[in-house]
Amino acid sequence: MLEFLLRFFGRETTSSKKIAKERLRLVLVHDRAGVSPHLLEALKNDLIKVISEYMDIDTAGLEVSLNQENDSVALVANIPILRVKRTFKTGTETAAKA
Amino acid sequence: MGEVIVITSGKGGVGKTTTTANLGTGLASLGKKVVLVDTDIGLRNLDVVMGLENRIVYDLLDVVEGRCRLKQALIKDKRLDNLYLLPANQTRDKTAVSRQQMIDLTAQLREEYDFVLIDCPAGIEMGFKNAIAGAEKALVVTTPEVAAVRDADRIIGLLEAAEMEPPRLIINRLRPDMVRRGDMMDIEDMLEILAIDLIGVVPEDEYIVISTNRGEPAVLDKHSRAGQAYRNIARRLTGEEVPFLNWDAGNGIMARLRRLIGLG
Questions:
Q1: Which of B77, B139, B186, B216 has its CA 20 to 30 A from that of B163?
Q2: Long-range Cβ pairs for the range B48-53 (8 Å, 24+)
């Protein structure tokens, strides 16, 4: 009854239409860009490899996704940092060692 | 020279065949000379929806493989004498007709007919590629469901890649009551997501089941709401400007009250 009243006065709980639209938006961004979950996983693993050279990160909490903003698609990476490494190997150092 | 229009969708079961039958019958009712081509080889259905299943002698494959003349395979409609059907073959698969054969066939048909409507198989496989080969326009059918809209988007991408005219959308089986409750995507939602032009909206209508059972397209029934929607789309296909029916009675408090007491 409460739900009915809320709906009647236009204060809808998240309607299934809105959920459908949001889910479609996300899935279509991936479809149109031709980005498979497999590709994103590979990208994520490479990001972990590179960033770990400089920082300790929470690999389990790392999220990589595509977002649509207006007409453009953005790659969004959310990377929780545990600790920044004091010393890091620069490109020249690693090159010198090798 | 007639127009060749392919009726397509990504997902199966959204109403392509029903749409083809009704638009063809609608166009023929407007006095146009129309031929319907069922390219869903292996799974023919347009014949039963049209109620012409027991008149089939030859089919699309017999024509393209030269076993009969085109005229022999065309089945004249029971009700309208300017409406014809070219049925699909049931014993072979979707690779049986080539792109070139479809291009040749449609070129031949458009010489004589005002409209050549092609009922396309669902999906993006060989059958789809062949079905669109000879077409210059496409109508994409979807229902307001996540899976159907997603697949429609994929089809629209493929049609655009095929360098056809921008396809137009038919939203089928819309339920205005669910849209009002916020439980079904509305027309604007889908147009925004798919970014193509709309040519018509067909409401969910029990009469479609009855008309399919009988083999009589709903467009011929004056009382069917879906039939009315199909008549409007047929008129739009002939270039006529027909206003869209207003499915949304508004969300103002008065509209809500009116609906509540049954006046909406």
A1: B186
A2: B48/B212, B48/B215, B49/B17, B49/B18, B49/B21, B49/B212, B49/B215, B49/B217, B50/B21, B50/B25, B50/B77, B50/B85, B50/B215, B50/B217, B51/B78, B51/B214, B51/B215, B51/B216, B52/B77, B52/B78, B52/B85, B52/B87, B52/B215, B53/B215
Q: Do A31 and B153 touch (CB under 8 A)?
A: yes
Higher pLDDT, B91 or B250: B91
Sign (positive or negative) of CA dihedral B20, B21, B27, B33:
positive
Identify the residue among B183, B187, B193 best suited for mutation to test binding to A, counting A beta carbons within 10 A and taking the highest: B183
- The size of the A-B interface in CB pairs under 8 A is 42
Alpha-carbon separation of residue B246 from A44, A49, B226, B253 (angstroms)? 48, 56, 14, 18
Give CATH for domain A22-84. Answer: 3.30.1070.10
**Annotation-wise, does B16 bind a ligand?**
yes
Mean pLDDT, all residues of chain B: 92
Bridge-based pairing of strands A55-57 and B137-142 is unpaired
For chain B, which domains are there? 3-261 (3.40.50.300)
Q: A67 in helix, strand or coil? A: strand
- Positive or negative CA dihedral for B146, B149, B155, B157? negative
- Quick: pLDDT tens for B161-179: 998 999 999 999 999 999 9
The yes-or-no verdict on residue B264 having pLDDT over 50 is no
Q: Do B179 and A17 touch (CB under 8 A)?
A: yes
Q: Is A74 on the interface with B (CB under 8 A)?
A: no
pLDDT in the model for residue A98 = 46
List the structure tokens of A44: 């994520």
CB contact under 8 A, A18 and B182: yes
Give the nearest chain B residue to A10 (CA atoms). B251
B18 labeled binding residue = yes
Q: Is A6 on the interface with B (CB under 8 A)?
A: no
